[in-house]
Structures
1.
Amino acid sequence: MRLWSIHPRYFDAQALVAAWREGLIAQRVLGDDTSALHDHPQLQRFRDAPQPDAAIGAYLTALADEADERGTGLDRESIVVEAAAVGQLVVTDGQLDYEWGNLTRRLIERSPAVADRWANVWRPEAHPLFTVVGGGIAEWEVV
């Protein structure tokens, strides 16, 4: 499971759909304490949020907004809690850099045109749910 901290504008179509699919899985898992994925490291920051269901809803909403910008739709009715005022979660600049390296490698392999579009980006903007602070790679990240 990968719940990117990167703004979805940088995603190719495959990454956008995969983030949506995995976000929906995360939404289901966060609401089910018995799920085998309940303790998945990628869910840590959402579980730690004051309103985990609203946080994952805000995450999914930004993905749907990006899909709308591209003229393709994602089914917003799949979002259980669409929250306008959830607040922001924190992501470190080290985590953002780590994810950017991962995404860039994937884009180079499967979507060279998208990789070229973002080739001059040193550090991407964070997903709208996150605010960036200084720090290293997150403890929950599997490196």
Note: The radius of gyration is 15 Å.
2.
Amino acid sequence: MSELRIETALGTVRIALATAQAPVTTAYFLDQVCRGRLSGGSIFRVLSSELSATDAGAMIDAVQFGTARGLDEERQRIVHESTAVSGLRHEPWTVSAARFAPGELYGSFFVCVQAEPSLDYGGARHPDGEGFAPFGRVVAGRAVIRRAHDLAEAGGLLKHPVPILDVSVIDPSVAAKPA
């Protein structure tokens, strides 16, 4: 199973990719990594139910990573692999694609700090009810995600985003060749 290794100013996070359950979404993010688009980006948004306004709809606790352009990144359309399609759920440490409309992505993903059923298909977080597309799970660096979540500010966007220093793909099926 392939993983993403994300080095941030707070430490390193490893994400196991759910390639079998969410092949299109995974391929999109692997392409972003291979093109170097996430390196130089940041953890730019942290959502905290404790700091959310009561009229913000379904409040969530999540840490959002993205390209240097963040919410202004160019949008791309792909097949929307909601939880109804993939069978995955927004549980603690789930990694999911940030989106505008279903399948309209912008080089950004988030990590759930706790179970977030409002992000699943039929959930209340997005008015269209289509939910979000999970495509992986944090397997190392959970303390980094917790430290990032502790940086939450009112409104969600960080005044001082946490830099992403490097992002790489770890593929254990590619064995190192002897010298």
Note: Residues 21 and 128 are 22 Å apart (CA to CA).
3.
Amino acid sequence: MSEVTDLKERRFYPAVDAIEELLRDPEEEILMVAIDGKCGSGKTRLAEFLSRKLDANVFHMDDFFLRPEQRTEERMQEVGGNVDYERFREEVLIPLFYGDPVVYRPFRCSIMGFRPDDEITIPPKRLNIIEGSYSQHPYFGNPYQLRIFMDIDEETRRQHIFERSGEEKLQDFIDKWIPKEDAYFERYNIKEKSDLVISWS
């Protein structure tokens, strides 16, 4: 790991400390950690870091975008409604709660649907990381032992999206997805209700 990577990931250690504290409790048989927060803030990177360091399963909210038939005008106007929270609860959270394997098909934006041979089976582990915006959606109740919010300033947020996705996608985020995301954070006080806030800077 390079020095630059070390410096960028140093801010992740409060999450490691908090999770290690939970892991020391023998009564917590199944641990679920949510990483919510702003796009471009490092949610996926934190999840991958925790997976390597603490041997965790990682589940991505991006695998549960709405299918085309779900994208009704009513649903797209719903705060926090642009994710398939119903399917995520049934296919991920409920099996995790019972310590069962998780079996699901990720939604592929490139084809706006599922690939028939794309089923994923994830064997149970004690530690499970739920990564992505809307992972703390109130529809789920509060199944998590730890809730993390990843924060980032607006200028850096846009720069990261541009570097990752290009100018056209950045404008799409600015016009559509960032306002929806911010409305969800504000309506449900996601940052304020999180147990730990990690800032990019």
Note: The radius of gyration is 17 Å.
4.
Amino acid sequence: MLKVESDAKAGYLELTVDGVVHKDEYQQAVDAVDELLKTHEQLNVVEVVRDIGWIDAEVWWKDLLFHLSHRNFIHRAAVVSDNGWIGPMTRMFAPFYPAAIRTFGLDQLEYARTWAKVGDLHRAAD
């Protein structure tokens, strides 16, 4: 399952992965990004990875093409998961994106949402 939630006014997108990701669910995520980009130059994103199931090769291919054509659409991205390999994998690929990317545990979900929307709170007051 890939659940997509967005806040058009804030330019915010939240994706939750929990099991098998189907191509129609992936397309809903792409459509949500494209819709938000009509009114926002960049988006703040939270991706919650609870569990990853089977993902069709067609989805992987579409995702690669999507990221090649949407290279600069993220301002801040919070990746939230308790899966041990998600954090290291995220940090490995983060330098390839011109965005602020941080990882969080599931117990930090609310903080991750806040960080994605406004950045570090102590810096926001400066």
Note: The beta strands are 2-7, 12-21, 43-55, 74-81, 100-104.
